[in-house]
Amino acid sequence: MKGVLKTEKLALHGGTPAKTVPYGTGKRFGKEELVKLEEALNQNTLFYWHGHMVKDFCKKFADMYGVKHCVTTSSGTASIHVALGAVGVGPGDEVITSPITDMGSVIGILYQNAIPVFADLDPYSFNMDPKSVEEKITDKTKAIVVVHLAGNAAEIEEICKIAKKHNVYVIEDCAQSYCCEYKGKYAGTFGDIGCFSLNDFKHISAGDGGMVVTDNEELYYKALMFADKNFNRLGTEVVKNAPYLAPNYRMNELTAAVGIAQLDKVKDICAKRNVYGDKLNAALQGIKGLKPMKVLDDCTCSYWFYMFRIDEAEMGATRAEFVNALRAEGVPAQAGYMPTCVYQYDMFKNGTIYPGATKCPLDGTYGGRVKEYKDGDCPEAEAILSTCIKLNVNEFYTEQDLAETIEAIQKVCNYFNNK
Ligand SMILES: Cc1ncc(COP(=O)(O)O)c(C=O)c1O
User: Fold this and answer.
1) DSSP secondary structure string, 288-322?
2) How far apart are the CA of 287 and the centre of ligand 1, in A?
3) How far is the CA of 145 from the centre of ligand 1 (A)?
4) Is 85's pLDDT higher than 80?
5) Which one in 13, 221, 263, 360 has a CA-CA gap of 20 to 30 Å to 3?
């Protein structure tokens, strides 16, 4: 084990907790947001097509990302649905994605009556394994929704190569990965479309909201329309005779006003999280029984959270024992990330995705190949969820928070390793 060996009594056994002060906190919103909100209200319209906040926000985000186009939406979930609509995913198509993600990555697939197919994951980056992605491609695959989990880049170049070979679209889900750089490019700019979320738990927040970015002009216009009932507002008259079904996922001017102010803060927020997360990750290398998070070479991870795995036999503790000890030291560690893989949720296991007797889209109505999901579909993802431990990362955390968190983990590991 690296670092100083701590042999003090665990806090769990009456020793002094490693964490001596509460974790740093701070204000996420301030005058900057208020100024833009007032400006938005003074326009006397909050409709995106009439005001300039959404337009300014789109330009600012597209410039920051070095892409040609940005479309705003009402959530990250909406962004992914819009991306799927733009690339033309429809009934019976298959879309490959990750089994460890928010339902928002999958909801749009299901609303298109398409079929989610889950690829297995890399054991330590928790991102999609390109080999598994390729194995899951069939002649029905229309797109791959690549999730960059926790601010950490997936093997996106490899996945894009595979997608190109098989002629399928790549949609990047960057809801958890603002300013995540890989080989000098932002995650979200490798595939055909990148999707972002502004929900309140993300690096930046506008309450709710989302963005879709692309360099492809045709996909841009399709996304723009799909986010707005497939109405065409590009001419002088609005054309409401939509070519096909699309929802209303419009962003309003107030959301964009907050978004503009938040964009001024996002690089700093991500840079701070990167420094904290990288130092934490470096300190956890080489500890018996602890398997640190894998960040690709050439990736600047913006650590939406930090996650590692425990080998219980090697560590000499169960995950529950380890987490209890860590929590007693004052580190709010969480055993696991989500309770099960997405495909193990009741709606997938029972085929009850829509209300009523239908098993749609798993009933083969549209020539769908996938009829059921079962335990064991993605063994590595299931193993990750049963052995992972999640730690919070925050831009307001201090050097002391970092030092005490590392000390707590080392202390707990040392105790169990030498028990
Ligand atoms: C990876 C991922 N994708 C999609 C979403 C959906 O975003 P939203 O909550 O804004 O709909 C989330 C949100 O938690 C997410 O973490």
Assistant:
1) TTEEPPP--TTEE---SEEEEEE-HHHHTS-HHHH
2) 32
3) 12
4) yes
5) 13
- For the chain, the structural domain boundaries read 31-263
How does pLDDT run across 394-413, given as a tens digit for each residue?
999 999 999 999 999 999 99
31-263 CATH fold: Aspartate Aminotransferase; domain 2 (3.40.640)
Query: For the chain, how are helix, strand and coil distributed in percent, rounded to 5?
Result: 40, 15, 45
DSSP structure class, residue 39: H
Q: Round to whole Å and give the CA distance between 282 and 274.
A: 12
Q: Which of 260, 288, 202, 210 is nearest to 59 (CA)?
A: 260
Closest ligand 1 atom to 101 CA: 1
pLDDT: which is higher, 184 or 419: 184
Residue 69 structure tokens: 């186009």
Global confidence as pTM: 0.97
Pairing type for strands 94-97 and 115-118 reads parallel
Ligand 1 pocket (Cβ < 6 Å) reads: 75-77, 101-102, 104-105, 147, 173, 175-176, 197, 199, 208, 210
**Residue 101 Cα to ligand 1 middle (Å):** 8
